[in-house]
Amino acid sequence: xxxxxxxxxxxxxxxxxxxxxxxxxxxxxxxxxxxxxxxxxxxxxxxxxxxxxxxxxxxxxxxxxxxxxxxxxxxxxxxxxxxxxxxxxxxxxxxxxxxxxxxxxxxxxxxxxxxxxxxxxxxxxxxxxxxxxxxxxxxxxxxxxxxxxxxxxxxxxxxxxxxxxxxxxxxxxxxxxxxxxxxxxxxxxxxxxxxxxxxxxxxxxxxxxxxxxxxxxxxxxxxxxxxxxxxxxxxxxxxxxxxxxxxxxxxxxxxxxxxxxxxxxxxxxxxxxxxxxxxxxxxxxxxxxxxxxxxxxxxxxxxxxx
Length: 306
Fold this sequence. Notes:
By secondary structure, the protein is α/β, with parallel strands linked by helices. The chain has helices spanning 51-59, 84-97, 110-121, 137-146, 151-154, 156-160, 166-186, 194-204, 209-223, 227-235, 257-260, 283-286, 288-300; strands at 15-21, 24-31, 36-40, 63-67, 103-108, 126-132, 244-249, 271-276.
């Protein structure tokens, strides 16, 4: 039997709530008071990936909100809307539904791609940008075309996601074993613990989550050859005008560090790049103390240098 959405209602020093934005219901988890920090997860995860940062940010005087993206966890799972402009509009609407006109936006993996997109398409809602394991979308697009033995090869799983039905079956069979395998293969040796992997495997088996999650990859791949993808690429040439922190694990085999490096060309504001030795694709979970020290130090700096 497939699990239901109750599996993402994990208890801790935070509160769960539903927030409606743009006609879509989002499950969010909130801790602390102060300036809003919106935390956006990636694949194949959900809000729980930010459990360490919910604690550290709230303790440091921030209002930390981790959301399940469209199609994931306890949020709505509509049949369409998995393109980056729509996802960015989701997150911008979520900020406003939380009673704020803008927020510090921290995004990992797909959450990072849509955070970059927000900073361009709805710049007033992003006060600072933190991209984790996520190159600027145009850097990713370019690397897939120009680095066949590097990023194109590293993205082979995502390329396999383009076919219908079969990837959904593979991701959910055997209690989501493939999800656990991806987490292990993309991270440093020794992570995740068996219980952490179990949580992600369970959440990914919620009905339709696998399909919705794969629709992100399908849009990104197929749109490269369609007018909507070309329009998106043109729009993303606009430079980011807010301070940007770019964090990446040196051992990341899914998004190569050399793919992420160079994203600074799209940032007109102060930009800081930090590469974490000994971390893979999930540095905020693999080395949370080191990650949080870097993040909080940068947030506390009123004028972060380049």
